[in-house]
Write a structure and sequence with these properties.
Number of strands: 23
Helix content: 25-40%
Structural class: alpha+beta
Shape: flat
């Protein structure tokens, strides 16, 4: 019976590995859809002002702020589409305008008063109280150096707009949260606001002819293709374009103006269409391919190691715990297509990509090896002794079923205490991650 179970588990692991390797080849190394096209943002025009509002017309905006803010018919309206934000923010957030340099003036309805931000005076519980606008200066791209609430009616200069600013949001990340940050691309000032086709991304076929529509205030042709960038309130331009890929020449793109049939060749990463900036990139960068390759190597290596290793003389491969360990890593492997898809769809920071592709799949093997390594390091130094005792105490706690039951109770209780998927201002998903990591450590470290 034990031998049959070993064979079954080995066949299962082999099939999972073959499935993942096939997906890796078809989706990462040799994908049909090998390029992605993204609208980076609006090319700012010094002659225009850009108002952030939920109003659909200049006239409607003038009714609520016409006496306080300079508004003209040529101005651009930038909308927000988050129902949760609409509950706590005004109909007008502020204006991006040019006065010898680009500036942003925040509306008077926002607050930077800590006492106003929350009735119970805890900053991390201020999500549903009054609207705020926050600056997060970044050092080294991912280390945060303090947080600052911008004062109402304050004007922010261009050098500050290069930093990260965002409006209070109950969820999301850089791909969905409403950030206000100016970027420089090809000597143009770009505003990547999340509206119309801005910040959208489409994959384009690299093996056969494919096209993407780009339409400016032209609703008649919006469905000319099944992939469209459509702009109405974010641009005053008029026009219809098709971005066409020529499969006969790899990486060759042409931009066709469908109104006058003029075609332009695109040979650079960034290109302009009217007052929007676009980019063309491979589906996966070289760095992402390396990370996805490491993901597979770590998991396949972990399976092989667990099949070959023995914890003690009485250990047999067919033990239930070891079967569970190998089965969980097989689930890791089966999740590879989801990880690869997230890399192609979302714009993760490189540090998050490293965590997802290297650290997460390493957890089983590290948890398996850590107790032994800690035992060997116990006598080396005082510092290592402290670390060892702390780690062994943690391991001892989670060897008891009571620890797992306690974590389960916390998870269930948090669901009932949560408001908008948050507990104490922190998304529930983060608590679940900690619980899952703890359970994984328990499974793989327990001998």
């Amino acid at each position: 019976m034990k031998k049959k179970l070993q064979i079954l588990l080995g066949i299962t692991a082999l099939l999972c590995t073959l499935f993942t390797l096939h997906n890796y080849y078809k989706d990462v190394l040799n994908p049909d859809f090998s390029y992605n096209v993204r609208c980076e943002g609006i090319i700012l025009d010094p002659n225009n002002a850009y108002h952030i509002t939920d109003k659909n017309s200049i006239q409607d905006l003038q009714k609520i702020r016409g006496n306080e803010v300079a508004i003209s018919e040529n101005d651009i309206l930038l909308h927000y589409r988050d129902r949760d934000i609409e509950k706590i923010t005004p109909s007008y957030w502020g204006t991006v305008f040019y006065d010898n340099e680009w500036c942003f003036r925040l509306d008077k309805a926002f607050s930077n008063n800590a006492n106003e931000l929350s009735n119970i005076h805890l900053p991390f519980l201020s999500i549903f109280s009054t609207p705020w606008y926050k600056e997060i200066p970044i050092i080294g791209k991912f280390f945060y150096d303090g947080q600052q609430f911008i004062k109402p009616n304050e004007t922010i200069e261009q050098k500050e707009l290069y930093k990260n600013h965002y409006f209070n949001s109950v969820s999301g990340d850089k791909n969905s949260r409403y950030y206000l940050q100016i970027k420089t691309i090809n000597n143009n000032q770009i505003l990547p606001w999340f509206d119309d086709g801005i910040k959208q991304k489409y994959l384009i076929n690299g093996t056969k002819a494919d096209s993407i529509g780009v339409f400016f205030n032209n609703k008649e042709n919006v469905f000319h293709t099944n992939k469209n960038f459509a702009f109405d309130n974010t641009s005053k331009k008029q026009g219809s374009y098709l971005l066409i890929h020529n499969p006969d020449k790899k990486g060759s793109f042409n931009l066709l103006n469908t109104e006058n049939n003029k075609s332009f060749s695109i040979n650079t990463k960034y290109f302009e269409v009217e007052d929007m900036m676009f980019s063309i990139n491979p589906k996966y960068s070289l760095f992402q391919k390396v990370l996805l390759s490491l993901y597979l190597l770590i998991l396949i290596g972990s399976i092989v190691f667990l099949f070959l290793s023995k914890r003690d003389a009485e250990y047999t491969l067919s033990s239930s715990l070891q079967n569970i360990r190998i089965s969980l890593i097989c689930l890791y492997l089966l999740g590879f297509p989801i990880l690869a898809m997230s890399f192609s769809i979302h714009s993760f920071d490189w540090i998050r990509e490293v965590i997802l592709a290297v650290f997460v799949p390493s957890i089983p093997l590290l948890s398996y090896l850590l107790p032994k390594r800690l035992e060997q390091a116990k006598k080396n130094s005082i510092l290592k002794n402290i670390l060892t005792k702390s780690a062994l105490l943690f391991e001892k706690i989670f060897k008891y079923e009571l620890g797992i039951i306690f974590l389960f109770i916390i998870m269930i209780t948090s669901l009932f205490l949560a408001q908008n998927e948050r507990v104490l201002g922190i998304p529930i998903i983060h608590y679940i991650k900690i619980i899952l990591l703890s359970v994984f450590y328990y499974i793989y470290s327990n001998s």
